[in-house]
Amino acid sequence: MIENWEEYRIVNDSLQRLVSNADTLPKVKKALQHLIKAGGKRTRPIIVLLSGKLAGGDYETVLDMAMAVELIHTASLAHDDIIDRGVVRRNVETLNVKYDPSLAMLVGDWLISKSVELTSKYGPEVVRNFARTGMMMSEGEILDVYSITDDFGEEEYFRCIELKTASLFAYSARNAYKFISGDNSKSEKMYQYGFNLGIAYQLVDDLLEYLEIFEDKKSEFESLTLPLLLERTFGFKESVHRVLELIKKFTEKSKRALESFPSSEAKEKLLYLVDYMTVNMIKNYVSKNREVISILEAHYP
């Protein structure tokens, strides 16, 4: 489990220090403490640390870059919950419920601003790439929000997840490696690692959410995802099968991107993260829901 990794501990400790040392309003600090206490996988900042290590650097050098990635991701979740009127995330009340939507929105803005400040030490290229990633994430969220009213098919779906999810994974993997090594060719390999992992992860997330709809775990669905789009043509079982094949395709592409790198602990951990965020999530779901899945297959032949 990555919760036992040194990198996970470094990220969590750094987040706690950042919040404790933040020179800001009491309302903001309480909201930040609530967000950090909620936890999370911390996979994106861990990828930053491991990519810097793979390039021959140390964790301290790219730590602020890792923090920036986690802060902008956290901001996107806070804004997401306002849009979706989310009530619970990571088993705790969302910020918009714990306090109110106005504070949630403004603390999200604070997090984005802080993340830009953290990247500023790395120079114009890193800041520019980070800003572009933030814009892409916003564009992806816009596609997602209007997926139920606009003309939205498979092409639009993949464009959405490339922008909303894969862009930040790609940034996390590429920029730390490029900053340490200066190697454009291998930095592009790292980009492909993160980009394909991001797509695979979002496909898994959407697939599991789709299965939960059929278990009545969700009362409503706010956007169109690939399983729902495929079901219209192919039915339940075939749509699940096709999404699983795509997950396999993108996980393999992510792993292949690392083939040219020499063996190291950082490389092994980056490879493990691919399975951790895809195959392991599916296996965990299946192991907990075997009976439910059998019922679903019986009802949706």
Automatic annotation (TrEMBL):
MF terms in GO: all-trans-octaprenyl-diphosphate synthase activity; metal ion binding
EC number per UniProt: 2.5.1.90
Signal peptide region: none
Key words, A-Z: Magnesium, Metal-binding, Transferase
Gene3D superfamilies the UniProt entry points to: Farnesyl Diphosphate Synthase
Domain of life from the UniProt record: Archaea
Obligatory cofactor(s): Mg(2+)
GO biological process annotation, one example: isoprenoid biosynthetic process
Record-linked Pfam families: polyprenyl_synt
Family of the protein in this entry: Belongs to the FPP/GGPP synthase family.
Protein name: Geranylgeranyl pyrophosphate synthase
